[in-house]
């Protein structure tokens, strides 16, 4: 039996190309922002009506796929935080320029960003 190990970049390529944590993309134009809002609405409606629980990570990956098909620039972030006496919390969110597409939380700044994908 032969077992092949792939590098992490090959195994995780569906998340996107890793970029620096301070990477900036240009703000979307009006047409792209309108499409991005429609994608956000579609994802939130699916979250409400599907019989399974869609977590932030699932929503972020879905937004990435839908925005990529529409050629709209976006970033996918993965972050973690550890509050005293609490277990480690992970969170994923996507942004299209300054517009948070999925995973919006009022405490996003409390998460330490561990990965940023284009």
What does this structure look like?
The chain has 118 residues and is of the alpha+beta class. It has one domain (18-117). 32% of the residues lie in helices and 23% in strands. It is built from 3 helices and 5 strands. The chain has helices spanning 8-11, 30-49, 56-69; strands at 18-19, 75-81, 89-96, 99-102, 112-117. It has a 5-stranded antiparallel beta sheet with strand order 1-5-2-3-4. Strand 3 and strand 4 (99-102) form a beta hairpin. Helix 2 (30-49) packs antiparallel against helix 3 (56-69). The radius of gyration is 16 Å and the shape is globular.
**In percent, how helical is the residue content?**
25-40%
| Uncertain ranges | none
Helix/sheet category: alpha+beta
Mean pLDDT: 82
Shape: globular
Order of helices and strands: HEHHEEEE
Strands of the widest sheet, in order across it, are: 1-5-2-3-4
How many individual helices?
A: 3
The largest pleated sheet is described as: 5 strands, antiparallel
The end-to-end distance, rounded to whole angstroms, is: 36 Å
Radius of gyration over C-alpha positions, nearest whole angstrom: 16 Å
Fraction in beta strands = 15-25%
Overall number of structural domains? 1
Quick one: how many beta strands?
5
* Assembly annotation: single chain
How is this fold's topology laid out?
Elements (H helix, E strand, L loop, with lengths): L7 H4 L6 E2 L10 H20 L6 H14 L5 E7 L7 E8 L2 E4 L9 E6 L1
Antiparallel strand pairs: 1-5, 2-3, 2-5, 3-4
Helix pairs in contact: 2-3
């Amino acid at each position: 039996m032969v077992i092949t190990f792939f590098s992490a970049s090959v195994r995780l390529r569906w998340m996107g190309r890793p970029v620096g944590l301070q990477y900036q993309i240009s703000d979307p134009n009006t047409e792209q922002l309108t499409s991005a809002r429609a994608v956000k609405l579609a994802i939130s409606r699916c979250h409400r009506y599907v019989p399974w629980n869609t977590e932030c990570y699932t929503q972020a990956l879905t937004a990435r796929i839908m925005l990529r098909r529409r050629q709209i620039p976006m970033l996918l972030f993965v972050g973690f935080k550890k509050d005293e006496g609490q277990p480690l919390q992970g969170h994923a969110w996507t942004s299209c320029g300054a517009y948070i597409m999925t995973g919006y939380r009022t405490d996003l700044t409390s998460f330490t960003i561990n990965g940023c994908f284009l």
